[in-house]
């Protein structure tokens, strides 16, 4: 076995009395062996954090759909939205009425941006009333020949942040345990594997429900933001108001994310208590078909195809709150270690101890890019099993 004398670090398969042993590979192996945890789907990103406050840039494409914040009356000459900044004079728009879900035979051309929430328009076709909450859709933003460089504004990247959290467990084997013949020949490495497994569950829970805290002193523990907080803080909350999961509700969540600039919401993270509701989504359609050579029967939804054409893999994690479903682009998420703080084992045996001890330590945070484009359905109906 070779040892790097400059860093005093060796791999996770050796137990010579040395200051630090790298356990990154061992942790990643355990991580992938726990498919019932969302952690198994999260990659460890290659670029480590360089500070306890980890920052990254969020960047989304310019929106192509907006929602009316007030009813439009025929011949009004303008409409209101939450933010008119993305509109441009000359844009051609169409509408989908929130009440009828139909697209009237009319188009609008933007003539002016009146203020931060109001857009002036001229109508072509049959000018029709529109309910509050109706959808405004971009048809085109055409430019005339020889036009100047004016046009749609691109979205500006915005910094987002999370905080590194220290995870630590003690692995120990007494002198007696080391000397007694036990089934499986248990040694310190066995206890280190157990410690890593316990840390994995703690890290998994922090990824789901962590509440971020960046203290100003070492006396207070630093904690990371989880998926729930990152999405809610970014405005991605959709309140189900106690109703049961339905196709319409799931599609509304997808639409909310798409309106915010999401490109692919490919993963739904739910508690197994929601499995029965996902199963019911297919009650009015074709039930699962069991082929003749199949030895597995059941009614368990693992993949859901929404009305917008996207495919979402349903990931069941028993640690997820029962009344919440996070719908995310898993490719935008990942674990980030603080530089030189990926999981490692440090000799913790004290002089005179009748035991061999090592302390497992790692410092990580969660990165979720473009958190505003992910969606958290909250306050869902849950019926006791």
Task: Please give a quick description of this structure.
This protein is an alpha+beta fold and 385 residues long. The protein is built from six helices and 20 strands.
- Could you tell me the radius of gyration in angstroms? 27 Å
How large is the count of helical segments? 6
| Strand portion | 25-35%
Report the principal-axis shape: elongated
Helix amount, in percent? 10-25%
Q: Which CATH-level-2 architecture of the largest domain? A: Alpha-Beta Complex
pLDDT averaged over residues: 85
Unreliable parts: 1-7, 286-290
Could you give a short account of the major beta sheet? 6 strands, mixed
CATH C-level category of the largest domain: Alpha Beta
What structural class results from the helix and strand content?
A: alpha+beta
Under CATH, the topology of the largest domain is which? phage-related protein like fold
Number of strands: 20
Q: What series of H and E elements makes up the topology?
A: EEHEEEEEEEEEHHHEHEHEEEEEEE
Number of domains: 2
Span from first to last CA?
Answer: 54 Å
Helix/strand layout:
Elements: E1 9-10, E2 20-22, H1 24-32, E3 53-58, E4 65-67, E5 78-80, E6 92-96, E7 106-113, E8 118-125, E9 135-140, E10 158-163, E11 165-174, H2 175-179, H3 188-209, H4 227-233, E12 237-239, H5 247-259, E13 267-270, H6 275-280, E14 303-305, E15 311-316, E16 325-328, E17 333-337, E18 344-347, E19 355-368, E20 375-378
Parallel strand pairs: 1-2, 12-20, 13-15
Antiparallel strand pairs: 2-18, 3-10, 4-9, 5-8, 6-7, 6-9, 7-8, 11-19, 13-16, 14-15, 16-20, 17-19, 18-19
